[in-house]
Every structure is written in C-alpha cells, then in structure tokens.
Amino acid sequence: MRVITTVSELKSAIKAEKAQHKTIGFVPTMGYLHEGHRALLKRARQENQMVVLSVFVNPIQFGPNEDFEAYPRDFEQDQKTASEEGVDIIFHPSVSEMYPHELSVGMTVNKRTDVLCGESRPGHFDGVATVLTKLFHLVQPDRAYFGKKDAQQVAVVDGLVNDFNFPLQIVPVDTVREQDGLAKSSRNVYLTEKERLEAPILYKSLLMAVEMIKSGEVNPERIIQEITDKIHTETSGQIDYVSILAYPNLEKIDVVEGNYIIALAVKFSKARLIDNVIIVEE
C-alpha cells in the first residue's frame, strides 16, 4: 500500500496504472474510518483491479457554525484499516495541496440540496461537489463508492456525474447496521445507555412505513405522521425531520409511488442520527 500526499505524485501513479489498463475503484472519505467505510472498500476491492482511498477533511464543506478543526482524525488507524481491506493507494493531501490558492471557479449545486440535511447546511454540497470534481479528475476512477446512509450526498453526486458527463459509475452501497438495526455511525458512541436502547426505533419506524405502503397507504402525510408518533412515543429524541421524497431528484411527492426515499433525522442529547430507506423499482 502506498501513501501519496501530493497531486503530482498521484497523477504519475494513476497514469502508470492506466497505462496497464487497470480498472480503478475509488472511495472518497474524510477519514476516521469505520465499518461503513470498510463495506465500501470491500465492494471496491471485489469489483476493481486497483483501489484508491482518499482521506481528506475538506474545509470548504464546513459551514460557519461547524468546527472544521474539531472533526475527528486518526490517520494511523485509517492506514491500518486500509491495509486490512486491500487498498493500493491512499491519497492524503494537506489543505494547501488541494487548495493552493483561492478558487477562481466555484461550483454551486442547484437542486437536491434544499431538503433533508441540506436544508440546514447551505453551501455544504457546493463544497462536496467541488472536492469530488477535483478528486474524480485526479483519480480517474471507473467506479466510485458511496454509502446509502448519506442518501442525499449520493443523489447530489449522481447529479454531478450525470450533468458533467464524468466517465465513471457511482456505486451506492447498503447501510451497515448493528444487529438491532441501528445504522452504524461514529456518532453512536455519544448516545447514553438509555438512548442507545431507543435508537433502533428509528429504523423500525422506517420499516413500519414500508409495510404501510405495501399495504396500500400512498398518502405521504399519513405515513410521516405514523413515523413521527412512533418516534415521539418510544424515544426521548427530538425529530429534526421526517420526509418522503422522489429519489434521486429529492422532490416532494403527493402520492408514494415509483422511486422514493423515506428519510429522517433525530437529535438525542449529544448525537444527531440520520437514517433512510430507498425504494427503487427494478
């Protein structure tokens, strides 16, 4: 496994691999890798001759009330995880390497950002789109892997790749869950013992909603109310949002049909948890 910290060295390495006609799988991350990231790396390893992992905490996707400096980092552990999952190259640049000067061209995401988590994080996905554009150009992957847990990010990246004709495939990977259904997250450690027992209700409420739809309920407002009631009754968390939207365009719908997402965010005392189910017609 090779650790690369400069753009020039990465370009040279990718050029050499491309000359051998190797397929490249890419997993972009901000580091502090957990089992969800491992799932992405395993899938990339299965489907490609070469795997590139980026570890870069991207400052331009942090809002004014979000602490870039406080974001957890453990590159030594990330290297260990990457090695165990068969990564070939880790790209771990500094901020000055990725942004050596003020950008002369900015990216603005016009759609899919004014709902769910994006509604309270204006500009966040502009920063995501900017860094991914740079990384996609540098790595030149055949496939890029993203977790479905952050379904809004997957939708935004899908739009970016389609709008700008990036020659790569976006591969969404299923959310990794604990045995009781709770979506794995680095935030789970901040739950109190009582909250940890309550937290699986989030996923159970989503599954309940899916069963309602299978049984013929197509009114999104009624389904949202049932989810809301269950979370209020069975947890101490405060609901940030519960939404049912078309997917991946994330537009509001009056009738639940076609491809859609049921998504929620709930705030506990020291952790804000998100989860979703995505239903896509085969």
UniProtKB/TrEMBL annotation:
Keyword list, A-Z: ATP-binding, Cytoplasm, Ligase, Nucleotide-binding, Pantothenate biosynthesis
Subcellular location(s) of the protein: Cytoplasm
Domain of life: Bacteria
Pathway: Cofactor biosynthesis; (R)-pantothenate biosynthesis; (R)-pantothenate from (R)-pantoate and beta-alanine: step 1/1
Active site: 37 (proton donor)
Catalytic activity, reaction form: (R)-pantoate + beta-alanine + ATP = (R)-pantothenate + AMP + diphosphate + H(+)
InterPro entries reported for this sequence: Cyt_trans-like, Pantoate_ligase, Pantoate_ligase_C, Rossmann-like_a/b/a_fold
Gene Ontology MF: a single term: ligase activity
Binding site for beta-alanine: 61
Binding site for (R)-pantoate: 61, 153
Presence of the UniProt keyword Nucleotide-binding in the record: yes
EC numbers, comma separated: 6.3.2.1
Cited CDD domains: PanC
Chief location category: cytoplasm
Entry-linked Pfam families: Pantoate_ligase (PF02569)
Residues the entry annotates as binding ATP: 30-37, 147-150, 176, 184-187
Enzyme class: ligase
Protein purpose: Catalyzes the condensation of pantoate with beta-alanine in an ATP-dependent reaction via a pantoyl-adenylate intermediate.
Family named by the database record: Belongs to the pantothenate synthetase family.
Record-linked PANTHER family: CYTIDYLATE KINASE/PANTOATE-BETA-ALANINE LIGASE, PANTOATE--BETA-ALANINE LIGASE
Oligomer and partners: Homodimer.
Extra remark: The reaction proceeds by a bi uni uni bi ping pong mechanism.
Name the record gives this protein: Pantothenate synthetase
